[in-house]
Amino acid sequence: MSRRFSPTPYLFLAPALVLTALFVFYPFFRVIYLGFTEYDIITDPKWVGLGNFVKMFGEDNFYISLKNSLLYLIVTPIIIVLAVSLALVVNRNLVGISFFRALYYIPVITGSIAVGTMWRWMFASDGLVNSTMLSLGLATEAVDYTYHEWLTLPVCMLLTVWTGVGYYMVVFVAGLQSISNEVYEAALIDGCNNFQKHWYISLPGLRPVITFVAIISSSAAIKVFNEIYVVTGDRGGLLNSAYTMVFYIYKEAFNLSHFGYASAVAIVLLIITLTLSILNLRISERGQEA
Amino acid sequence: MTMPIQRTRKLEPVFWYVLLIVAAIFTVLPFVWLLSTSIKSPNEPIATTPPRFIPLEPTLENYVKVWNYLPIWRYFLNSVFVSVCVVVGTLVITSLAAYPLAKMRFKGRDIIFYSLLATLLVPSELTLIPSYVMMVRTFELKNNFLSLILPNIAGAFDIFLLRQAMRGVPDDLLEAARIDGASEVRIWWQVILPVVRPALATVSIFSLVGAWNAFLWPSLMLTERNMWTLTVGLARLSGLFFSDFRALCAGTVITILPILLFFSIMQRNFVGGLAGAVKG
């Protein structure tokens, strides 16, 4: 099949490659350079070597952000458990099941900003959560969850879970539907009960999809921004207690004009993200060998 | 022994419906509360113990207030314009790129494919700063919708999805078209694209939801009030109406209504399209 050189394939690829080079590759190398400079956008970047990193490791806000971003990974297993369970339920042949399936998808399409605005007020001191808790006698006084030492981050996580479950549920439903019916029928003949059926067939069958979801949702979790921004109303929680890495980058760059320093924080986050992806792939490879 | 088993068989659907309804309540309750607060009059407290979901004197004045204060209609059109451009741009550019990657042999194909895939490891949040500087200083596209469109129409994941789908198109079909003298562009348009239509639907839905809900980048690029998209407008609105929660709720309802309508019309294709994507 060796033919003479033809420019056709490259012409087809050209627009995508130009855009990718411009908006992914160039900024990628540029951010690594900027991380070693002092830069305020107006004057040219000034090389400071490791200065930004030295400064970073002395900053409380950096440690808060790092800790919170890593803590945020808790949402991944929660989302997976809820989404798989929900997928097993909505994958049954029940009357009106497609209605429920669509219903659970609604938080996904309304988006984190619109939902988050609502969330912020549900958890405010005069919001739905407080009034419910008070009326049920579960609390004695109102708490402002959006501006609290340690409760703000869990409220953001709850929002991430609430908007995410529907999306991953659909992904798992698709995965379940690709498991062949014959396997289930054979299991039925062998006298498997419902629980055994899912434990021995559905879950192993879903394994590749679970890996896919783990990678996607954990890399989304580590760079969470919208939820923090909208729930805390751009404040980042009481004494910055709800700062995450991307929120920190955003604050340093666009509120304080520390573009060089923020780039250095971005480099750290980049390293964490890459490590996480590699780890995820390794774990899934080992799982497949077993 | 037979009796209990039969009883559980009969009770089983009831159990599933209870579960479905509990999950549904958790999903819908915040929206119900949102809607109910948006039609509460200023005389009625928002938070009561116990919470009340049906307002005593429902009113539309909050909607009127938001409508008069913010050009919501304008924001809506801005969002529609940007989203449509992103979807159309994505469909054209990613399907053009996917075709040679799936169906042609040429030098550097694997390198190009894997370097495109590698971009998935670098989320746009991390390259925010240089992208911002480039957009504002080099291209001078601040407050120009191109700044929202151009970086978002060559998604590597979309190229990957379409390449997978195109690999399934039989080679005989392409060879037959080539023998008939069809150009590669024509093959792309008339042979490949019709076959991969489900994958194209999935790609457009993904990019539509992404563009419609984008916030961080648009909020950095759009500083002029008239240029805001709905998400940016809504986030700003929550700053403006900090004390007026009823108006804020009305604004939120206006923001989510269009995409909810779109979803309820497209619902069947939506879940089906996603299912196809994961299988493919």
Description:
The complex is a heterodimer of chains A (290) and B (280). In chain A, 72% of the residues lie in helices and 1% in strands. Chain A is mainly α and 290 residues long. In chain A, a hairpin with a 7-residue loop joins strand 1 (37-38) and strand 2. In chain A, helix 4 (75-90) crosses helix 7 and helix 11 (245-255) runs antiparallel to helix 12 (259-289). Chain A is globular and about 75 Å long. With 280 residues, chain B is mostly helical. Chain B has two domains: 2-59, no CATH class; 64-279, MetI-like (MetI-like fold, Orthogonal Bundle). Chain B is 73% helix and 0% strand. Chain B contains 13 helices and no strands. The model of chain B has no long low-confidence stretch (mean pLDDT 85). At the A-B interface, helix 1, helix 4, helix 5, helix 6 and helix 7 of A face helix 1, helix 3, helix 4, helix 5 and helix 10 of B.
Radius of gyration of chain A: 24 Å
Largest interface (CB < 8 Å): A-B, 94 and 92 residues
Q: pLDDT below 50 for ≥5 consecutive residues: which ranges of chain B? A: none
Helix content of chain A: over 70%
SSE order of chain B, one letter for each helix or strand: HHHHHHHHHHHHH
The H-level CATH homologous superfamily of the largest domain in chain B, spelled out, is MetI-like
Gross geometry of chain B: globular
Number of discrete helical segments of chain A: 12
What is the strand arrangement across the widest sheet of chain A?
A: 1-2
Count of the domains of chain B: 2
End-to-end Cα distance of chain B? 45 Å
Question: What are the SSEs and their pairings?
Answer:
The complex is a heterodimer of chains A (290) and B (280).
Chain A: H1 8-34, E1 37-38, E2 46-47, H2 51-56, H3 60-71, H4 75-90, H5 97-122, H6 128-136, H7 152-177, H8 181-189, H9 194-222, H10 226-231, H11 245-255, H12 259-289
Antiparallel strand pairs in A: 1-2
Helix pairs in contact in A: 1-12, 3-11, 4-7, 4-9, 5-7, 7-9, 9-12, 11-12
Chain B: H1 2-38, H2 61-69, H3 72-103, H4 109-118, H5 128-138, H6 146-149, H7 156-167, H8 171-179, H9 184-195, H10 197-213, H11 216-221, H12 230-240, H13 245-279
Helix pairs in contact in B: 1-13, 2-13, 3-7, 3-10, 8-9, 10-13, 12-13
